Predict the 3D structure of the following.
Amino acid sequence: MKKKPISPESRAKSLEFIYRKLSFCSSRCLFNLAKIMALIVTHTSNQLSRQSTENINLCFPELNSAQKKKLHAKNIHHTCCNFFELANLWSNPIAQVLSCITDEQIADSFHSSKRAKIVIAPHHGSWELLNLWLAQHQPLMSLYKPTRNPFVDNYVIKSRSRNGAQLIPIGTAGLRQLLKGLKAEACTMVLPDQKPRANKACITAPFYQHNAETSLLIKNLASKADCDIYIAVVTRDLKQCDYSLRIEQLDRTTITSDDVTSASYLNQSIENLIRNDISQYQWTYRRFPEEVYQTFASSHS
C-alpha cells in the first residue's frame, strides 16, 4: 500500500514545529548540533560537500591539502549553522536575538545620514540576523526569492518580517516597488552575489581571479535614486557563541560608473569582507559558469 505523500502545508508546519522546539536551545547547543550535521555532510557524498570543495580548490590554489581540508570542514560547519540558528532568529523575542550581537563596527554615516540606503549583504555569516538588525533600526525593504511551497513561503515571510521588514519578491513589480521605496528614503537590503537569473541585467567580472556573472541591480538602483551605499555582514564566533556586525560605506561614484567597473568594484568589496573569515562564505553555492569549473578540472586532472 502506497504511503500518502506529505502535503506542502504539512511540510511547512513540520518545519515551524522543529524550529520552535529548537528555539529553546542555546546558541552553543545549536552550533554543536550543526557540528554533528557537518560531520555527516563532510563524510558522505552530497552536493553541498562537493561544491564547497570545488570552490575552495578553485579560489584558493595557494593553500595546501591540509589547509583546504580544514577550510572545507569549517565551511560546512558554518553552512549547517545557517540552518540551525534560524530556530533562534525566527522564534525568540527580537531583543533576545539581537543581544547576541556583541561587537559592532559601523560606518559613522550609517546612522547620521538621512538619505536612502542600499545595503549590500553578501551570503557571508548570518545574513538572516543582519536582516533583523537592519529592520530594528530603520524601515527596511528586503528582496527575497519566493519558495516553491507557498506555505513555507508564508512562514519565511512571517519570520523575516516580524520586526517590520517589508519583504519584496524578486521580479519586475518588486523592483519597481523597491525603487519607489528608495526614492522615499527607505533602506533596502540586497544579496547580489549569486548567479543572476536568465534575462536579467548582468556582466562578467572577476571574483577570486575567475570570471563570474555579476548582477547590475545595485548599479541600476543607485543610478535612479539619491542614496548611500553600504556593504554589511554579521559573522558568528563559534567559540564565544555570539556575533559581530560590520557595516562599511562604499563609493557611490564607482558603483554608478560603467558596467565593468561597477561589477568589479562590487565583487572586490565582497572579497574584502570575506577575507576576515573565508570559512563563513557560502562556498556551497555554484557561483561560477560551468566552463570555469570544467577548465579548472581539466587542468588539474
Remarks:
- The first helix runs from residue 8 to 22.
